[in-house]
Fold this sequence. Notes:
By secondary structure, the protein is α+β, with helices and mostly antiparallel strands. The chain has three domains: about 20-90, ATP-grasp fold, A domain (Dna Ligase, domain 1), CATH 3.30.1490; about 100-220, ATP-grasp fold, B domain (D-amino Acid Aminotransferase, Chain A, domain 1, 2-Layer Sandwich), CATH 3.30.470; about 230-380, 3-Layer(aba) Sandwich (Rossmann fold). Helices cover about 40% and strands about 25% of the residues. The protein has 13 helices and 18 strands. The protein has helices at about 5-15, 30-40, 65-75, 125-130, 150-160, 165-180, 220-225, 230-240, 260-270, 285-300, 315-330, 345-355, 365-380; strands spanning about 20-25, 40-45, 60, 80, 85, 90, 100-105, 110-120, 135-140, 185-195, 200-205, 205-210, 245, 250-255, 275-280, 305-310, 335-345, 360-365. Strands 7, 8, 9, 10, 11 and 12 form a six-stranded antiparallel beta sheet that branches. Strands 1-6-2-3 form a four-stranded antiparallel beta sheet, with helices on one face. Strands 14-16-17-18 form a four-stranded parallel beta sheet, sandwiched between helices. Helix 11 (about 315-330) links the parallel strand 16 (about 305-310) and strand 17 (about 335-345). The two termini are about 40 Å apart.
Amino acid sequence: xxxxxxxxxxxxxxxxxxxxxxxxxxxxxxxxxxxxxxxxxxxxxxxxxxxxxxxxxxxxxxxxxxxxxxxxxxxxxxxxxxxxxxxxxxxxxxxxxxxxxxxxxxxxxxxxxxxxxxxxxxxxxxxxxxxxxxxxxxxxxxxxxxxxxxxxxxxxxxxxxxxxxxxxxxxxxxxxxxxxxxxxxxxxxxxxxxxxxxxxxxxxxxxxxxxxxxxxxxxxxxxxxxxxxxxxxxxxxxxxxxxxxxxxxxxxxxxxxxxxxxxxxxxxxxxxxxxxxxxxxxxxxxxxxxxxxxxxxxxxxxxxxxxxxxxxxxxxxxxxxxxxxxxxxxxxxxxxxxxxxxxxxxxxxxxxxxxxxxxxxxxxxxxxxxxxxxxxxxxxxxx
Length: 383
Ligand code: GDP
Ligand code: MN
């Protein structure tokens, strides 16, 4: 789960990371009043879960009441890469001498945490990463060892942080690492981490992705998930308790088991199709679950065909087939459906599907054939 900047900053503050005072505002009036309370200059910041707000005009400095008003008017309702701004964070403005970058995330390939620090932070960090990767210092951290202050200091120096800021940056790194580990985050990022002209080091932005698998030990996270910015497909899937990830293609995918769902996406790509989503319906494939899955896929306007890939294990083939047939009776589906059913009692299952076969319900015996047909139908539609 991703946090908004202001939530991320509140999370940072719990771990002692210095952030600026600020207030949330959902209307122009509230924004002006927040600015008056904070004292000028303030920064009016769009709260959307997408990067590059500054370049999109979503971050504005305001030196007085009139500017606070005009900035709030300009930013509220702004569309930033498809995210419409509904909430502002009004923050006391900081003076900036230098902009740095710091983050922790998991390096899955190395099976270690990865710290990244750069003296070249700010709105162009992606470009720096691409053109001058050596400008970003990296350190792998064994979770059993943690991050010692001495290692943090060495990392800050290696990143070329100015000498006067090295201790401050190292201090923030130690706190940020604690936030990442104890706070159960998958990613914590500060860009920019600034040095002020009077020598203080301070987080000016916050990107925090919490590890959903750890939510059971953080009852306070409920407050975040209620505000989460989900696309309508993701929201419905979450309500229905399905493991769903929206993608950009036109072949809707339903499979039982995460591994099979991922392979299904891969095979569709391999035959030239484009998966519209990842959807794992889990071990069983009852009519209710299948109906829910089809309903979620149905809300995706881009979907032009649906590939149902089920391998019966404990769930028997005829139950799966009956589930699919019953689900189709419950949900009105326009896109043609291609089913590959295999595993326990596959023959019985396919016989049931054969009874209901039409040009919009096709059963094929192998994953590859079914992927081909589904991709083809997405391109050409039903003949
Ligand atoms: P992003 O564009 O979505 O990453 O938003 P940020 O919160 O990182 O802000 C973008 C840029 O706006 C920063 O890199 C700063 O240069 C500038 N900025 C943000 N807050 C302040 C502030 O308090 N004072 C000044 N002078 N500039 C700021
Ligand atoms: Mn930023």
